[in-house]
Amino acid sequence: MTDTRRWTLRTENTGYTVRLSPDGPWAELDAWGPLGVEDGPSALDWSHRTHFITPADAAPAEYVPHGLRPFTGADLVASRPGAERGVWWEFASAEEGDGTLRLAFADDVLGLRTVLCYESVPGTDVVLRWTELTCTGDEELRLERVDSAGVNIPVTGTARLTYLTGQWSQEFQRTQLDLPRGTFAMGSVQGVPGHAYAPWLAVQDGTAEAAYGLALQWPGNWHMTAEAEPGGAVRVRAGRVPHEGAVFLAPGETLATPRLACAFSPDGLDGLARVWHRYERHLTGERLDRPRKVLYNSWEATGFDVDAAEQLELAKVAADIGAELFVVDDGWFTGRGDDTGGLGDWYPDPAAFPHGFGRFVDDVRALGLDFGLWVEPEAVSPASRLYAEHPEWVYRIDDRPARLVRNQLLLDLGRADVQDFVIATLDRLLTEHPVSYLKWDMNRPPTERGRPGTGHADHLDLDARHVAGYLRVLDHLRAAHPDVTVEGCAGGGGRIEHATIARTDVVWPSDNTAPLDRLAIQHGFLHAHAPHVMSSWVTDAPGVFDPRPRSLAFRFVNAMCGVLGIGADLRAWTPEQRAEAARWIARYKDVRDVVHRGEVHLLGSPADPTFGVQYDAPEAGRTVVAALSTGRLDGAPLVPGRPARLRLRGLQPTARYRDAAAERTYSGAHLLHHGLPFAWSAAHDAELVVLTRL
Ligand code: DGJ
Prior knowledge:
Strand content: 25-35%
CATH superfamily of the domain at 6-285: alpha-galactosidase from lactobacil brevis
CATH architecture of the domain at 6-285: Distorted Sandwich
Number of strands: 37
Number of helices: 13
Largest sheet: 10 strands, antiparallel
Distance between the termini: 63 Å
CATH class of the domain at 6-285: Mainly Beta
Bound molecules: (2R,3S,4R,5S)-2-(hydroxymethyl)piperidine-3,4,5-triol
C-alpha cells in the first residue's frame, strides 16, 4: 500500500501541509495558506495527463534530486567522483516534533541520506525549511547543486512576482513581473547577497491578495528561481551557490543548507511585510527592548578628512540638537587619508587625534554622546603593514594578478588565523576605549577567489568558509561585547539578509540618502525588512545623488521611518535649522517605540503624490503616520481645491482618534474611508501625525 501520510506545520495564522506522494518516493506540498486550508482536496493536485515527462517532473515536490526528476530541474545534483550523476532514493522515516518535521530519504547505492527539515517559528507566520545531507557510504560525494528547498506556490493562472532589485546606491527597488510560463532567476556570486537583488521574493496568484514570501538566510553566493511548471504550480528554488562549482561531502560528514524562510499573508504585500517585520523582531529578540539611539555619523560631512577638533565641533552641535551617539566613519586610522591606504592597520591616526584618541573619545562622551567607530574588518590595503606581514591572507589565485577594487583587497575570512586577527582587533578597539557602536562595512567583492599555495583547491568551499568566519566574528561580538550596537553595511545594502540581521542591530540599506531616492529605497526595503533594523540619515540637500529639493521636514520624516540618524554637515546649519532639527529629534524620541515595534502599513507607493507609512501600537492606543508629498513643490494643488488624503488601515471604525498637535479628532471610519487630509505646499511637504485612540 502506498504511504501517503500528511503532516501540517502550524504557525500563528497559517498551515503548511506536506504529504508523501502517491506517485513516487518524494514529499510534496498538499496545502499552504490560512489555518485549516488543508481541509479539502489539494489545490496542487495535477492532472496526470502530462505525457513525455515523469510524475516527479510535474508533481509539487518539496525537494527532488536529479535522477528522480530528470527534466524540469532538480534541487540536488549529487554523484560519486567519476560516476554518473543522480540520486534514486527511498523514503526512510518521518520525525514530527513540536513545530518541527524531519523527512528522511535514503539512497543506499550512492551512500546519501537526505533529510528535509521544517520548523515553524513561534509567534510568526514563517516556516523555515532547509536540508541536511549525510554521506553514508565509504566514498566522498560531489554535490553540484545543493538547494535549501523547493517551494511550491499554488496559483491558478499567471503568477505575479515581486522582487527587490537595483545596484549600488539604488538598492531595494520594488519590481514586479507576471510569469505565465518559464523561469525567473536572480542571485549573486559576489560573495555577498549583492546590490543587484535581495534574496527575497514574493509570489501572488495574479492580482489575488494572498502573498507568499521566500527569503534566504545566507550572506554568501546564492540563487533563487521561480518556475511556472507544467503541473500548474510556481516552484521556487533557492540555495547557496558553491564558489568551486560543487561541495564535497566526506564519509560520515553532514552538510546543512542555509535556512529558507517561507512566509504567508492573506493581506497582500503589505500584510506579507508585517509577517517579515514580526519575524525580524523575533530574530532581534530581547535586543529590541533597547531603544535605538539617535546617531550622528560624520562621513558625509568630513569624508576621509578626520580631524579631532572638527569632529568635536560636529559632535557638539549633534549633542545640542539631541543626538545620542556620535560615530566616526572611515578615515580615523593610520594611512587612511583617502581610499588608497590604511585598511588592516586599525590604529587611530595620531595626526588626526593630536591629543590622543582616548582624550578625543572622552571629549565626545563628555558631551553626553555614546561613541562609535567604522571598521571594514575583511579589507586590506596593499600599502598596509598588515598586507606586508600577511600577503597570504588575501584571496588570490596562484600565478594570477590580484585585481584591486576600490584600491583594496579582501581577506580570506574563512581562515581561522584571519578570524582570530579580526576578533583580536575588534576586542582591542572595543576594550581600550569606551566604544559602544561599531559599523561593519565591506566594500569589495572577492574577484580572484583562491587560497594562495593550495593550487586548484576545489574542496575548500571558500564561500561557505567566508560566511562561517563572518558569522563567527559577529557571534563573538554579541557574546563578548553584548552592549555594543552593531550596524551591518556593505557599500550600502550589499549584505542584508537574515543571518546578518540576526547578529546585528541595524543595517544600512544604501549610500543614497537623497530624499526622493531614499524614499523609493526604503519603500522596497520595508517590504522585506523591519523598521527597527533600517538605519536612515538626514543629510544635506541637494544630496550627492539626487538634486531634487525637499525640505528639512521631509528629510526628517523620511529618516524617522526607521532608525533616525543625521549625516549632514551640521556646522553649516543655521540656528533656525538646528532648532527645527531639535524639534524633530524630540518628536522622534517620543514615537520611536511605536515605529520600531508597531505594525506597519505601507500607504501607497512613492510614485503616488502622497505616500505614507503607518505604524500602529494598538495596545498603547497610538498610531504614527509619516506622510510625504512626492509631488510638485510649486504650490499647485494636486486635485484642484482639495487637500491630499491618505487612507489609513487597520483602525477601529467606531473608535475616535485624536491628533493633539493639530487639535483635531477623527472617527476611525473617516480615517479608513476618506483618510487623513494634508495641505501640501512648497514650504510644507511632510508631516508626522501622531494619533491617540480615545
Ligand atoms: C561605504 C558605506 O556604505 C558608507 O556609508 C561609508 O561608510 C563608506 N563606505 C566609507 O568608506
